[in-house]
Amino acid sequence: MPASLMTRRFAVGMAGLMAVLGGLLLLKHQFLPAANPPTAYTQCPVAEARYQHSADPHFSAQFIRPPHAASAASPWLLLIKSPDQEYWFRFASSNGYGGIFLVPVHKPRPQTEEDGPEDIHPDTGAENALTPYLEQLRFYPLDEQLRILDDPPQDGPGHEMAPKLLLMPELGNLLWYEPGLLDGDTASPRQTLARGFFRLRTCARQTP
């Protein structure tokens, strides 16, 4: 691997780590001292979990289970909504300490259901100019003790319940500087979203 690429990936990784540590300190300050857990910390099936962003409640998130598995990392998709935009993602994960990443995909359509979701950027790789931006889309699911979970949502016994918090530290950065990377629209408007987390707020029937 070229030294320049290793340096770039190290810098991106360190920036992401510092963002996560800052987010976790914020979470600890807001949640752990409470004598009683917030009402958001209830058991909720993945399909019915509805999240709101801590910095702007107009941003919401939910998991969508397509007819066919979305990826090898997880059968679920993540849908993030702003007041006027939708952003769809599948999950990807690396071996070892690589962690979980979000991969932007097009909104599922009936004609593509059999093949799974369609990546917005199918040819990203080590030498692609978009790769450093997309590598910022790290995804951290947390439980009520603020422990980072190892995997994105899965199917089957032991995986029925949704994470309590979703942390994507650099989502706001991309929404402002490169919104078109997230929805495939070069005319996509900038979105302002301060760094924060998506908190489980309600349980509801799945309605994409």
Keywords:
globular; 8 strands; alpha+beta
Explain how this protein is built:
The protein is an alpha+beta fold and 208 residues long. It has one domain. The protein is built from 4 helices and 8 strands. It has helices spanning 3-31, 131-134, 171-177, 180-183; strands spanning 49-53, 60-64, 77-81, 86-94, 99-105, 138-142, 165-167, 197-203. An 8-stranded antiparallel β-barrel has the order 1-2-3-4-5-6-7-8. The radius of gyration is 17 Å and the shape is globular. 27% of the residues are buried.
Instruction: Give me the Rg, rounded.
Output: 17 Å
How many domains would you count in the coordinates? Answer: 1
SSE series: HEEEEEHEEHHE
**Helix coverage percent:** 10-25%
What's the mean pLDDT score?
A: 78
The tally of beta strands, per DSSP, is 8
Identify low-pLDDT runs: 1-10, 27-40
Q: How would you describe the oligomerization state of the chains in this entry?
A: single chain
Strand order of the largest sheet: 1-2-3-4-5-6-7-8
* Shape estimate: globular
